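Internal tracking record. Fields below are filled automatically when a chain is submitted to the structure queue. Please do not edit lines marked as system-generated. If the sequence contains nonstandard residues, flag them in the REMARKS field before resubmitting.
Queue: standard
Priority: normal
Entity type: single polypeptide chain
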Amino acid sequence: MSVDLKYRRVLLKVSGEALMGTREYGLDPEMVARVADEIQSVHALGVELCLVIGGGNIFRGISGSAVGMERASGDYIGMLATVINSLAVQNELEQRGVTTRVQSAISMQAICEPYIRRRALRHLEKNRVVIFAAGTGNPFFTTDTAAALRASEMGCNALLKATKVDGVYDADPNQVPDAVRFERLGYLDVLSRDLQVMDASAISLARENRIPILVFSIFENGGFAKVLQGCGRCTIIGELT
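SYSTEM-GENERATED OUTPUT FOLLOWS
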């Protein structure tokens, strides 16, 4: 298939909350299927694709520390939650005929591979979707930071963040009807305005490695593929020239 792609190797960051759909917690099978459909359509275009999936639908370390749990312990539990989500998405993708590998930063070889950079690169070259689980493997770092780190290690052309809205706004558009949407932002704009698209460590790491961040809605059918072809609705965060 001959398709004009703006980005050939990308990392998609999906929040755990996106996978719970309208539920209060856990996994919504319909939402997992929707995400898998979007990934499958992009994979069919020939894009080399890797994923980082959050765990906030199951457990969030910061919330745990707020009720008395040691932060490091809470973060490790959150990392295990990302493994659960990664295996769920892997299952959906493989039912669609998409070959995947889950690599975990915390070794659990009975269910997935350990994270090995060169092996992950080889999987991408063989057109396999690689799902990076367990964050960075260290507490005090979010899955946003893990996404920026893995995108840097894999030499990705772009880091895409799938959200519930079609870009970055100066306020929550679901609560503020006249919130202003940005078409393009600089890395430093995001940090100085405290827009909270991703945490500061992730933004800084992407900036250092000159990886643009594209924020788009996972709820638009075919939106992921459109963004990669340069015609989708999104906010691009990068160097302003």
